[in-house]
Design a protein that fits this description.
The chain has 343 residues and is α+β, with helices and mostly antiparallel strands. The protein has 8 helices and 16 strands. About 11% of the residues have low confidence.
């Protein structure tokens, strides 16, 4: 599928602006519900739509906490703010962590994930852009050699062409970057600060109306033989004071649509029709459904979940109940450059 670069860049710009707004708006003691609603309202005001419910995950909850419509929890501790924006299904995904306790360990943990992200982006940029520049220089040298040749034999040109073809396949472009190299950089950076990367959380490829499009960008050196290809990706280091693992916790009230199999009740059919039209395959939350369709819609939501129409995400919790920090940017990888869309 061809990408819409203009909409990708536009979504990233909005996400960056909303992230800057959230950094200054969020304060200790604010209701998480108020924070989520303000961030999501800002996305709409800026010309985008939320690509998923704002995640506001505290301390040992690594991801997938969004407040319900009647949530009373308050912001505190080490708060991770994960924001998604889309323009017609083209997504920007970005996250940051806040220390709301003026705690030295929190600050160090946040710095480790931020630095891991910076180093991963620097690695990708250097390998793509420097190698593409070297490839162009090498191609120019081959071309000069051909032009200066006096033999004029067809085999000289054919041979040079084969050299260029081989170089393009084996040396040029993004195939040079192993996903394991990105993971190794993230892992080594976090460990250099005395913490552990969360091994079973990762970055991911992004497709059209598809937040997790199948490719995993590891946060550890997983020895993968896969290479980074052109496309849209979220680079997303998580660091922890624990052993580097998360497990499923409580239900998150975040869902995505699996199918449109017809449920029995009328309210369930109405809710399903609304979800399919409004969110397609992107994640949504019960809070949004209540806001649009009223509290009665919760009965319909439960019906379509039991009917097998929905995937219900669990909160992701650090296995030793220790703190987790998160930092994330979205990148557009092209043949000869990368663009960080969410800065």
């Amino acid at each position: 599928m061809d990408i819409d670069k203009q909409k990708i860049i536009q979504a990233g710009k909005i996400a960056s602006q909303v992230k800057a707004y959230a950094r200054t708006m969020v304060k200790k003691g604010m209701p998480l519900l108020e924070i989520a609603e303000k961030i999501e309202a800002k996305i709409f005001e800026s010309g985008g739509k939320p690509a998923f419910p704002v995640n506001l995950s505290i301390d040992n909850i690594a991801a997938h906490y969004t407040p319900s419509h009647d949530d009373t929890a308050l912001a505190h501790g080490l708060l991770k703010v994960d924001i998604g924006v889309h323009i017609d299904g083209w997504v920007a995904d970005t996250a940051f962590s806040l220390d709301l306790e003026n705690n030295d360990e929190n600050k160090k943990l946040i710095k480790s994930s931020e630095e891991a992200l910076e180093n991963a982006l620097s690695l990708i940029k250097s390998r793509i852009e420097v190698n593409e520049k070297n490839k162009v220089n090498d191609d120019n040298k081959v071309g000069s050699s051909i032009n200066s040749s006096s033999s004029g034999r067809a085999s000289d040109f054919a041979g040079a062409g084969n050299v260029l073809d081989k170089r393009g396949r084996e040396e040029g472009g993004n195939d040079l970057i192993g996903l394991d190299e990105i993971g190794k950089t993230i892992q080594e950076t976090i460990e250099s600060h005395g913490f552990n990367p969360v091994a079973n959380l990762s970055g991911h490829s992004i497709g059209h109306y598809d937040l997790h499009a199948g490719v995993t960008i590891p946060n550890t050196d997983n020895k993968s033989s896969l290479k980074l290809k052109e496309g849209l990706y979220a680079i997303e280091p998580f660091a922890t004071t624990g052993n580097g693992k998360v497990h499923d916790g409580k239900p998150s009230n975040i869902y995505y649509l699996l199918n449109e199999k017809n449920p029995r009740s009328q309210i369930a059919r109405e809710v399903l029709e609304f979800i399919a039209k409004e969110y397609k395959s992107l994640p949504f939350c019960s809070r949004w459904i209540v806001k649009k369709l009223g509290s009665r819609s919760l009965f319909g939501l439960r019906d379509i979940e039991s009917n097998g129409n929905l995937h219900h995400f669990a909160q992701l919790v650090e296995t030793q109940s220790t703190k987790v920090s998160q930092s994330e940017q979205t990148i557009l990888v092209e043949k000869d450059k990368i663009t960080v869309t969410t800065v």
